[in-house]
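Q: Can someone sanity-check these two? First one:
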Amino acid sequence: MSIDVDARGLACPQPVIGVKKALDSIAEGTITAIVDNSVAKENVIKFATANNCGVSVSQQGNHYYIKITKGKAVPTEQTLNQPQTANGKLVYLISQDTLGHGSAELGGVLMKSFMFTLLERDPRPDVIMFINAGVKLTVEGSPVLEHLSQLSSHGTQVLSCGTCLDFYGLKDKLAVGSVTNMFTIVDELSSAAKAVTL
């Protein structure tokens, strides 16, 4: 069975949701998702590989054709290396580039201290997701880039909202982790044993 999911022109997370619905409708077979931007391409690929599907991509002009094969397990390195806390997954959602309300200068200092503490604390987070102005922390020039890079090297998944990176014009400046979408963000929060939102 082969299904085409034409997601061109659709906003996040609709391409991922369209692919999910198509995958849910078949026991095995092939889906071709068509998207028109690199963020949607990466989100669909990440979703498909996380669901143990085979993926191949071709590009025609500005359109990406993502061939997804269900029924062939393809465990990813990212999946294999994800750490789990003793009581389940620990997830953080960061929605701003400073910590707390009041002085922005003080908030920046506190955010740097917070990230350093996450790095030193045991267990470390399994996933840290950044949305809205929080994505400014994962790009070039971020004052917490070193801490996030070390967390990533220790196995913490660092995810930044693609729509938010686009909004702030930072998509090409991402320096740590990878791009994600609202479907994954909601899924991670819903499945976490403990979720902390800042």
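And here is the second, same format, sequence then tokens:
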Amino acid sequence: MRVLGIESTAHTIGVGIAQNREPHILANEKDKYEPEKGGIHPRDASRHHAEKIGSIISRALKKANLKIDDIDAVAVALGPGMGPCLRVGATAARAISSYFGKPLIPVNHAIAHIEIGNLLSGFSDPLVVYISGGNTSIIAYKQKRYRVFGETQDIALGNLIDTFAREAGLAPPYVVNGRHVVELCAERSKEKKLLDLPYIVKGQDVSYGGLLTSSLKMIGKEDLGDVCYSLVEISYSMITEVAERGLAHTRKKEVILTGGVSASKVLTEKLEKMSALHGAKFFSVPPAFAGDNGAMIAWTGLLEYVHGIIIDPSMAYISQRWRVEEVEVVWKE
């Protein structure tokens, strides 16, 4: 059984192909929208996706050495995400489903990040630290659903460091040789001076808005390397603290770090040490599968399809705020 998955929730248009035997991932092709300046404009990103999606589907099929007739079903991320971007993937998936007579599978983008982490780690019941440009959540499975045990009350961690990088004149590009430019800037801090910036943890939740504002006010007043160092140390320590609280609360024995920010070696090291202190196994999803990608949609779609989850193309609506708790996880014991 093979499922083709389409991802288009934000800056990345991706197409993956998964099957229910080894190797589970046959293709993971994608293209990322990179603005020349400023942040991501949903309209411009969606235009990029619309121009690229046809060629990326072809690349995925070629990579897997398959034809569309070899595909059993089509999965698509219907949310959460940016409306214009989501519509590109949804439109393509509905068209393929209708024209070629393939069953259509609705996939929650956040759950796809979790399931690809489960597949690659071999973990069965982890605490999930999901960090990206639009998401910051501590998630765990309980009674047929993934539950959010902690999250940001305002902006996401990825949005925090991207916005700071842009306003400080460090980006774009936001990532150089696999490292975020704010982390590279932090390494230029000679004294590793920790500035007095807000550290806001509220129970299981974090808040990054005040940290961003205060960090921006430090530009020009303090050494930029020290500002970057303080921003990285404080923001990563905040999410590590709430992850530790989630681990103590749920008593899980496994921790997965996923999402675009999981490529950070600094954050990985903090969470790895925290997990070890609690005797928990730790796994950081590799960059090719940690950021937005079609393979995670294809794999989660396959899990759903095996358990009979499909949707009529005419009912495949996008949902920009589709939370993980809304999905009944019928495929997990």
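A (reply): Looked at the second one. The chain has two domains: 2-114+290-326, 123-287. The chain has ten helices and 14 strands.
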